[in-house]
Amino acid sequence: MGKSHTEISRHIRVYLVVFGALLVLTAATVGAWKLEFLSAGAAIGLALAIAICKASLVALYFMHLSAENKMIYWLLALTFLFFLVLLLVPVMTAFDVVSN
Amino acid sequence: MLIPHIVKPRPDTGLNNGKLGIWLFLASEVMLFGALFATYLMLRMGASDWPVGTTYLNPVWAAINTIVLITSSVTMVMAWAMSAKRNFNMFRVYMLATVALGFVFMIIKYIEYSEKFHHDYYPSKHVFLAIYFTLTGLHGLHVLGGMVVNAYFALFGKKHYDQDPEWFTNRVEHSGLFWHFVDLVWIFLFPILYLL
After folding, report:
1. Which of A29, B34, B43, B123 is 20 to 30 Å from A20 by CA-CA measure?
2. What is the reported pTM?
3. Can you list the alpha helix ranges (DSSP code H) found in chain B?
4. ipTM, 2 dp
């Protein structure tokens, strides 16, 4: 890595801010679950949106993806593509209805 | 003889071999958990009646475990930062804190599982419980694996650190990437299994 002490101290401040944000978003996840007026679809959408925000913070700052090598981005883009295919397979089965 | 490019980046990839290796491993892990998430989705979409998580599970334990894992991710990056700042003693404190938080996570999981078994909630009872035990069991094994590696660095890493602190710091970063990935998976498991 070879980072300077000043640079690492700056990193530490960012980590603490991200930690605070993650705690707030966890509280928001539980809070959203308590909102009884939300429909099931809206509740799922909101919970997943908050989870994606939290995951992005962890990946960008704790896993240092905000300043990573280009090859890692390509690798992750390819992984994400295959992951989407995996998730789409069960969704596609819902449309594969045998007609009478 | 040492494998080349374990400290300095390879000229062609711009990465040290360890970092490329751990990211390739994490890519395979995404597919492993992705397959199980897809299974969950397929089971849920195909079921005529799917229970909400609270029917069988206690979200309070899961919320506490979420906070425990997030905190452990912070102690993990702090351990890396201390190693990068060449402060081994503080590195050890943060790394041991990470291991301890992993231990807390596993104890809470044990309590949760015990409660399920006490109520006869076994994987065979309902398909929801089957996918719950599969996903959380696999995740728990990952936590355990991460704890072993982190404990090794904290307890036996001094000699390696004294020989080559930069290489040691890279290895801590790589184990940290795995630990954060485990945290990432839990971030999705928590709402999907317990709240929805």
Report:
1. B34
2. 0.92
3. 17-46, 59-84, 88-118, 127-156, 158-163, 165-189
4. 0.90
